[in-house]
Amino acid sequence: MTQKTKHTSDFRPLDVQAIRGDFPIFADTPPLAFLDSAASTQTPRPVVEAMDAYYDTYRSNIHRGVYRISEEATDQYEKARQKVAQLINAPRTSQVVFTRNTTESINLVAYSWGSLNIQQGDEIVLTDLEHHSNLVPWQLLAQRTGATLRFLEITDEGLLDFTQLRDVLSPKTKLVAITHVSNVLGTITPIQSIIDAAHTAGAKVIVDAAQSVPHFHVDVQQLDCDFLAFSGHKMCGPTGVGVLYGKSELLDDMPPFLGGGSMIRSVERDISTYADVPAKFEAGTPSIAEAIGLGAAVDYLTQAGLASIHVHEQELLKYAHERLQEIEGITIYGPAPHQKAGVISFDMEGIHPHDIAGILDTHNVAIRAGHHCAQPLMKKLDVIATARASFYLYNTLEDVDRLYEGLQKAQTLMTRRNK
Amino acid sequence: MNIYQEELLDHYENPSNYGTLPNPDISHEEDNPLCGDKIRIDLIVEDDIIKEVRFSGHGCTISLAAASMLTEEIVGKSLTEVKKLSRDDILDMVGIPLGPVRVKCALLALKVLKAGAYGIKGWPGEEDE
Hints:
The structure holds 2 protein chains of 2 kinds. Chain A is of the alpha/beta class. Chain A has helices spanning 2-7, 16-21, 45-58, 68-87, 102-117, 136-145, 165-168, 191-200, 220-223, 248-253, 288-304, 306-325, 353-362, 375-381, 397-418; strands spanning 33-34, 96-99, 123-127, 148-152, 173-179, 204-208, 227-231, 242-246, 264-267, 272-274, 330-333, 343-348, 365-366, 368-370, 386-390. In chain A, strand 6, helix 9 and strand 7 (227-231) form a beta-alpha-beta unit. By secondary structure, chain B is α+β, with helices and mostly antiparallel strands. A 3-stranded antiparallel beta sheet of chain B has the order 1-2-3, covered by helices on one side. In chain B, strand 1 and strand 2 form a beta hairpin. In chain B, helix 4 crosses helix 5. At the A-B interface, helix 13 and helix 15 of A face helix 1 and helix 5 of B.
């Protein structure tokens, strides 16, 4: 993977024990084995402290206050934008729009860019791996405009069937909306090749990076993606803040998404002119504390080193595959560890995923069970639900051992009874 | 208290009234789209009294054990009484504290039963809201 090799020079092993010290939630003995970071991560103290500092010492609205603490709030909010821009190597800080989350970022593009660029007969290419957040907005756009959705399918291993790309892309393709990492299978998609092929076909590309930006280096200039969306709460930041990156020429031409304060230049009774990006897309008072918290989260992850985080997760993932495969009746979905991010989806013969998660919970091991907001993928895998463990920088090999032991106990408890 | 209690597991392992009826007076099926659990309940009803009941489907321990307990409870009762069964009646039967997600599992059988008793296509809204 290019993202990994490019940055291996900054690799140093994570000091996981020191990192865990920054997360009060792990202070109990035995600690919580939190294996659901793909849904939402835990929050380190520096992130909470950055938000506390805003609330305790300079709480005020941004942009228009002509007093000291409002200038401080504006400054910190904009610094957070700079940090995010640096993280993804955006050419300009103004290309980073703060939203509520990945879902809102994608909806912004679907409504704003979509209303201007998608017409009847146009095609939008998606994949079988998409989270509902990168599927439903395009369904709605297709319904509004008469456009058609087309899908890249996955192989039995849970990889994208790249050979179909040539058939699916056509002059009708206006947009390819694709996840960088599957939240269910962990599959890392061949995003670079897909972006290059889409551009050759004349289509724009939006990348759902909710599961990639938190876990390894993503460089928007290298990828040359047109849009990229991710969430703060999956990268040690707070809930309520997300990011949309876009190419300047696209963002500049797009009409506003939400109207209101902050996004205007001048307002008359019947007509308004709009502010430049990113303000054009940030109507109303934004999540100021949360954006500042996200900035602190970016600092935290950068300090730990994204390359180091990725290597650590790979180690956990490989170990989890080895251990879980020892369990009788287990099925692990998705590709081999080296082809995916720190996610392991599985089910166990004769045990409902809800029961797996329920029994693990009694051992203080938190995993997710359900359709993971990816019902079409569940259908493709021919399962109703799966159990899913996911890893982040604070997880340990002991967490994996506790998952393994919990699963053994679940099996003893449940399969004795199905005989 | 642990939700994986012997009593619940016994119902899951050896559910009462599991199966289907060949000529039911009422037969209804619903699923929980969140987790894919699906339960069907068949009833033989004479003069408003439930004479026989069977349930079938698939689901987690909680949803199947609650269905098993519910079917034990309703044989000999009238449809009028069944219509009055509430969320709390089911949670009392299950007898252990459940989180909000698992409450939906426990109440699936009741939703199926009440929709069947009222002769409607599906139970409107959530029992637990």
